[in-house]
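Session log. Operator J.P. requested a structure for one protein chain; no other inputs attached. Running the standard single-chain path with token output.
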Amino acid sequence: MELNKGPVGVFDSGYGGLTILNEFLREFPDYDFIYLGDNARTPYGTRSFEMVYQYTRQSVMRLFEMGCQLVILACNTASAKALRTIQQKDLPAFDSSRRVLGVVRPSVEK
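Structure written below.
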């Protein structure tokens, strides 16, 4: 990713993703980052697939509106439940040049 493409978005359902953001800041000091934590609706772990997907999609779209070309889902639940759907369904319809990555890959999928 080129530095002039805008900030990198980091999303978590709460504050835990700040540890991941801290590592990004240490490893990539020349990049700008925007952190979005959905503290109002945390925790995501007990919520349905549809609810996690909707909340995660809203947050990803907000980070895109803020100029992010890449969003990292620092939330394990969002990565496991919503990442694949956002990558396959939403990004092609919204802007196929943008990227969303997660911190975990699910070992079992529905």
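Operator note: Helices lie at 17-27, 49-65, 76-81, 83-94.
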